[in-house]
Amino acid sequence: MALITCKNLCVGYDKNVVASGLSFAVDRGDYLCIVGENGAGKSTLMKTLLGLQKPISGQIEFGDGLVQTEIGYLPQQTPVQKDFPASVWEVVLSGCLNRCGLRSFYNRAEKQTAEENMKRLGLEQMKNRCYRELSGGQQQRVLLARALCATQRLLILDEPVAGLDPKVTEELYALIESLNQSGITVIMVTHDMTAAIRYASHILHVSHQPLFYGSKAAYLQTQIGQTFAGLSEAQKGGAEA
What would the DSSP string read from start to end of 71-123? Predict the structure, then answer.
């Protein structure tokens, strides 16, 4: 059963349509990359899936026991957020907020979840450091740990390596891949076609309307896939092999 199924979804702001005709499904274990030009509606779609804004029309169905509030989300950071004066521990633990309900405190299980996710991402030694003093790559690890505190099943990542240097970018992609291989489903908005081709199991190409949805292999057989990925004739041959 699919975790998320979108049927003829139309998204936008204040009835201003940004993208329409979106129909796709995300199954357990998928690594879906959403690609397309700036302004095509990729981030708007993510916010709609998360319930941060309502769809203009169409349906979003959650299956296999997934609850919308149990999705882990790593958004793009603003300069103000990067300068947030909290400890690493406080930022990671805040990922458990949806579990607290009406409680004004974190319980032992939630604190243990935060500890486990810090360890999982190699953040134990940074626990008491101030978040705003960290490098960009370290901050992204912290935010990924926070997102993992919200979910054991599905991560939504919005341009997770934006602004990072190549070495840190590769390390973060490797972390995301390992999480996916451990059973966590990933939906990632990206402009990095090299990463999409390398890591994705499925691709949704959006340009105000869906231009393609399907497996990565099928995408690379299409003209839009080959053009957008910038494949040479030799690379096309390799993709088909």
Answer: -EEEPPPPHHHHT--SBHHHHHHGGGHHHHTT-SS--HHHHHHHHHHHHHTT-
Burial class from Cβ neighbours inside 10 Å (0-12, 13-18, 19+) for residue 25 reads middle
Q: Read out DSSP for 140-174?
A: HHHHHHHHHHT-SSEEEEESTTTT--HHHHHHHHH
Beta-carbon contacts of 45 under 8 Å, excluding residues fewer than 6 positions away, are 9, 11, 19, 22, 34, 206
pLDDT, tens only, 15-66: 889 999 999 999 999 999 999 888 888 989 999 999 999 999 999 999 999 9
Q: How far apart are CA 222 and CA 209, in angstroms?
A: 16
* Whether 206 contacts 42, CB under 8 Å: yes
**Residue entry with tokens 């029309």:** 57
User: To which H or E segment does residue 224 belong?
Assistant: helix 223-229
**One-letter amino acid for residue 238 of the chain:** G
Closest to 239 measured CA to CA, from 112, 225, 26, 181 = 225
Upper half-sphere CA count for residue 94 (Cβ side, 13 Å): 13
